[in-house]
Amino acid sequence: MYLSDIHTHSIASGHGTTCTISDMAKAASRKGLKLLGITDHGPGTLAAGTSSYFRSLTYAPKKRFGIELLFGVELNILDIDGHLDLNDELLGELDYAIASMHAQNYNSGTIAENTSAYLNAMTHPCVKVLGHCDNPAFPVDYETLAVGAKENGVIFEINEASLAPYGYRGDTRANNREILKYCMKYEIPIVLSSDSHGAKHVGDFTCAAEFVHEAMFPEKMILNNDIPRLKMILSER
Question: Residues with Cβ < 8 Å from 92, sequence gap 6 or more?
Fold first, then answer.
């Protein structure tokens, strides 16, 4: 059983879910989680959170239904220079940021171009997690990415929605094996994330956990149960 899930989405992300942050916290409590991260999509995503929404999170309660809450954002990487879709002032008020590529905002290029985009994005001090960089639609050089992540204090996620039968990214297993290989080589911890849009899959790491265990990835390098260390990494600037 894992105790934290730091990549989840509420109604503010659009995508059809009607779950509020309170709904998400209730679901996390039922699952036995201790820490829940709400990371709604940045304003570059159609119908997602506006700047005003992210500004208001500063005043939101940080504990609900016995669950500690962190408020972050899943940013859109916009170009090869690693520009992101939320300004520095607002990012500085949030607990952390995940940087991801989505076809709506980023036109996939060559392996070198996509890798550069991630590398440039992760130099932002608020970016702490690379979101679903297993996506075959955005091919990258995983060893170069791992070296950059190590230098910048950024971690990789193993994304449940990429590996589950309901996922839409295609077969991501080979890319996830590459991620785990280089995380072991460079001693980079990972986090399992549900990427749940709404409450249904909060805290569900069924496929992700099975995958990392089959790969014999060291449990001590999975941060979901080491909440103090996870929070320290997310807060470092």
Answer: 126
